[in-house]
Amino acid sequence: MATLNAILSPLLLLLLLLLLLSSAVPTLASGFGTALDPSLMGINLRKEKLSHFRFYWHDVTSGPHPSSVTVVPPPSNASATFFGLVNMIDNPLTLRPDPGSELVGRAQGLYSSASQEEVGLLMVMNFAFAAGKHNGSGITVLGRNPVFQKVREMP
């Protein structure tokens, strides 16, 4: 009996240690990511301040004053997705869908066709606000834009 306790005691201790460690490490139970509790990592975060922005992004690719110009055309053997295309932008952000409505800022950066299988853009831009409470502020956006999907989400 003493030898059995001598064997089981370290084994139980090891199992208990593994159980404690596994509760502090994120698991892949819900696909590829889970929420972390910042307090488990000793991080004390302030309450986040949220803002809701609603504006219209106008990408003008033709005419006398385009806001989007091609700086790298797709190669001549490009697919229907224009893979390889790069456009530089300085697009107006307006309060309403009408391009002539009040200007609230500009989207400045670039987008490129980064998918060979669908029209999927790599978007790299700054929203530079020039009106209202957020005048002088900006938001940087880097993400994927699958153009023909009904629901799109960009970080």
Q: Can you characterise this structure?
A:
Strands 1, 2, 3, 4, 5 and 6 form a 6-stranded antiparallel β-sheet that branches. This protein has 1 helix and 6 strands. It has one helix at residues 2-24; strands at 56-57, 68-72, 86-94, 103-113, 120-129, 138-146. 15% of the residues lie in helices and 30% in strands. With 155 residues, it is of the alpha+beta class. The termini are far apart.
Percent range of helical residues: 10-25%
List low-confidence stretches. Answer: 17-33
Give the class from helix and strand content and strand pairing: alpha+beta
Radius of gyration from CA coordinates? 26 Å
In whole angstroms, the N-to-C terminal distance is: 61 Å
Major β-sheet annotation:
6 strands, antiparallel
Mean pLDDT across all residues, rounded? 80
Order of helix and strand elements from N to C terminus: HEEEEEE
Number of strands: 6
Overall shape: it is flat
Q: Classify the beta-strand content into a percent band.
A: 25-35%
Number of helices: 1
